[in-house]
Amino acid sequence: MRERLVGIDAGGTMTKVVLFDVHGNEVASERRANVMLLPHEGWTERDADRMWRATCECVRTLLEKTGTDPGDIVAVTPSGYGGGVYLVDGRGTPVRNALVSTDTRSIPLIARWTATGRAAAVSWHIQQQIWPGQTLPILAWMQENEPDVLRRTAHVMSCKDFLRMRLCGDISTDPTDAGCAGIINVSRSEVSREAFEEAGLTSWLDKLPPIGPGVEIVGGISDEAAGQTGLRAGTPVVRGVYDVVGCSLASGVERPDQLAAVAGTFSIHSTVHAKPSLNPLPTIQTPYPVAGQVLATMATPTSASNLEWMCKTMLSAEAQRALLEGRSVYDICNDLVAGALARDNNILFFPFLYDGPKGAPAGFLGLKAGVSLADVVRAVYEGVVFAHRYDMSYLLDGPDAANPKVIRLAGGPSRSAVWAQMFADGLGLPIEIANGTEFGAKGASICASVATGIHADIPAAIAAMVRIDQRFEPDSVRAKVLTAKYNIYRNAIDVIAPLWSQAEVQDAQHEISRSRPALAVV
User: Fold this and answer.
1) Which residues form the Carbohydrate kinase FGGY C-terminal domain (predicted)?
2) pTM listed for this prediction
C-alpha cells in the first residue's frame, strides 16, 4: 500500500486537488477555474454547486491519471479562502450564491458602523479589523437587504466547510476559519456573542457551526460523494484550516521571527504571536495550531493577480509566443524583467486593480515614449513588491508587532527567481521558499497527517514534510535603489488617492456602472 493524502484548495480563482505522499512531496495535481459571478458592481459571487462539481471532477481525474488505488488514500482534507460566506438550508442546499472574500457590498454598512462607533466596538470583541469580505458584516448586509435569506438559512459556512459537508456530511468549522470570518473572540477561540449583540445579529447565532480542531477526523466519505469523486466510501475526512493558515504551515512558519507571505490574489503577510496583537490591530487574526499561538494577518488585493490581468489583457502576443515555444507567458515575463534590470527605470506601477489604499486606483507613473515592454513589466513586478512592503510597514509597526528575521514566500512570485530576489531586495529580509507549489493543499494535508496519526503534532509534521529549497539574500545595491523608488511610490499614493475619491468622479463612474449588465469571469 502506498499511503497518499488528498488536499483540496478552493481559492479565489482556482479549485485545486493535490495528491501528496506522507513526506509532503507533491505526487500530482489537478485544477479547474472557478467562475466569478459579478451581478452588481462590487459583488463577487460563486455558484457553490458548480465548485463542488469541479472538485469532484478534479479528484476523479487525479486518481485516474495517476493510477492511484482509492484504498491508498489515508485521508481527504479541504482548504479554502477565508471570509465570504456559504449559506445553506437544512438539507445542505445553497439558499443563494456564495460570496467570495473580494466582495465589497458591505462597504456602506461598515461606513455607517464606523460613524456610530459600532465598528470599533465589534472589532474590540473579535480582536481584528472589520473588512468588507469578512463574514460578520456580510451577515449584517444579508439581514438588511435579503431578509428572506436569513429566514431560509440553516447553516452559515465557509468555503472549505461547504466542501467538507459535501464530502462526508459534517457541518462544523475550525478556529482559523472562524477567526477569519470575524465571528469569534480569538483569545477564547469561541463565538463572540458580544460582537453579535453589538452588531444586532443575534438571529444568526443558532445558525453558526460548532467549532473543532483542524486536525480532527470528522467523518468518512459518503456513498454519494464516493460515487461522484471515485474515492472509497468511508475514507477519513479531516476538518482542516483555511488557506492562509495552510500556506503558513506549508511554509514551515512556527515562530515569531518568521513571516509568512503569500503573493496571489491578495498580498498576505502573517506573523506568529503568543497572544492576540492589538496594536497594530491586524486585518485578520486567528488561533494558530502551533503551540497555542495566534496568527496576525494583513491582507489586501494588491498582489500578483495584477500581473495575471496584464498577461490576459495586454500580452496576447507574448502569450501566443510562449505557447508556440512550449513555455508559460510568465516565463516570458521573467525573461523580460531580467533583461530590464540592467538599465535605469523610473516607472512606477500601482497594483490596485482590485482595490487600493485610501481608494487609490491602479496605474502607471513615469511612462515615456522611449520605454520598452520589458520596462513596463519590470514596473509591475516592482509595484507588487512595493504593495507588499506598504502592508508590511503596518503589520510590523507597534508594541505588539513581531520582529521577523526571514520571510517565507508562497504564491506565483515564489516560482520566479527574478521576482523572489526582487522581494528580498525590496523588503530587506532574506526570502526562503519551501518545497512544493500547492501550499494551501499541503497545509490541509499536514493537518491530515496529524489527524490520522502519521505525525504526532503539527511541529512534527512540519519537520517531516517541509524543507527549504531556496533562499534569496537582499542585495545591498538593489535594495537601496528599490527603497528610493518605494518612497516615491508611498508618497504618490497619498497624492493620488484624494484626487480619485472626489465625489464628481465617483458619481460619474457609478452612473456608468449602473448601465452595465452582470458578468461572469473565469
Assistant:
1) 259-451
2) 0.92
